[in-house]
Amino acid sequence: MRFLATGLCVLMLGAAALTAEPVSLTFVAASGYVIGRGDFKVAIDGLTTLETPAATQAMMEAAQPRALMSAASAPFDIDLILVTHSDSDHFDASVISSNMTANLQAVLIGPANVVRAVLAQAPTLDPARLIVVHPGLYSPQTVEAAGLSIDVFSFPLPGPENVGYRFRVGDLAFADPGDLNFDTIAMDFARTGWTETPPDVLILPYFLFNAEYRTVIPTCPARLYVPTHAQLGSLALACETARGVTDRVLCFSRSLEEQAIPPLSD
After folding, report:
1. Span 133-192, pLDDT tens digits
2. DSSP E strands: which ranges in the chain?
3. Engineered SS bond to 121: which of 13, 97, 108, 216, CB 3.0-4.6 Å?
4. Domain count, the chain
């Protein structure tokens, strides 16, 4: 009886530890992040190394992420690769194809032109690992991959197809719209249901916190904001701009910095 009780205690402790396992976020470059929980990792626009300002470019190159990405070395031993659109600050076909060749568990989800570009670089990839998404304006698409259910939304831009993603890792709902059309931001958040049911963590271009756009922030009242597009200014500027609107901001100071998601309040 004592052995049974001991075994049950061990099982209960193991389950509790799994439930309490923290979720982390690693800043990569530009608009890219890796979301992790234990050994499970999701990259969202996180397999590109483009930066523009000299300071952030030097910082990024010092971390040597491109070699790590191509070899699928930590933190780029990814289970799920999400790409919002094909602009070079969000996507690099050669890096993703190298990563998926080295990492046989990785699954890619993205618009058709993204998937085609990766397949052109690595034509022997298993098609089952390449998922094309094309949600309608008022008809989101749901995809099951890597043990997650991912909702995919249309966020139209004048350029290549841009999609947003919403999914859960652990107990947290993450959302990333990719780039946004400044003229329709509030309507897009309402149309996708993000206004009515905001995510816990919203990855959002930092310049939406500028004075001329910050009225859109309350239209998607996330519990935590993560500013992107630091390549258009700097990480410090992105953080300072976002914190001018809300203190619910997770800021980073260097490429490949990892932070645990802090406890979130309503």
Report:
1. 999 999 999 999 999 999 999 999 999 999 999 999 999 999 999 999 888 998 999 999
2. 24-27, 33-37, 40-44, 80-82, 107-110, 130-132, 141-145, 148-154, 163-169, 172-176, 201-205, 224-228, 258-260
3. 97
4. 1
Res 255: pLDDT: 83
SS (H, E, C) 250-261: CCCCCCCCEEEC
Whether residue 4 lies inside any domain: the answer is: no
What's the token pair of residue 123? 């034509």
Q: Which domain holds residue 144?
A: 23-259
φ/ψ of residue 169, rounded to 5? -125, 120
Below-50 pLDDT ranges, the chain:
1-18, 52
3 in any annotated domain: no
For residue 74, give the CATH number of its domain: 3.60.15.10
- Cα 214 off chain centre by: 22
| Look-up of token digits 């989800």 | 109
Q: Which residue has the tokens 């992105």?
A: 238
Quick one: pLDDT at residue 231?
62
Res 55: pLDDT: 52
Find, among 20, 34, 10, the residue nearest to 226 by Cα: 34
Q: What is the pLDDT of residue 208?
A: 84
Q: Residue 216 half-sphere exposure, CB side, CA atoms within 13 Å?
A: 23
Q: Which residues contact 161 (CB under 8 A, 6 or more apart)?
A: 85, 111, 112, 113, 134, 154
Ramachandran area for residue 72 (φ above 0: left; ψ -120 to 50: alpha; else beta):
left
Structural domain contains residue 11: no
Residue 154 sits at φ, ψ, to 5 deg, of -85, 125
In-domain check, residue 16: no
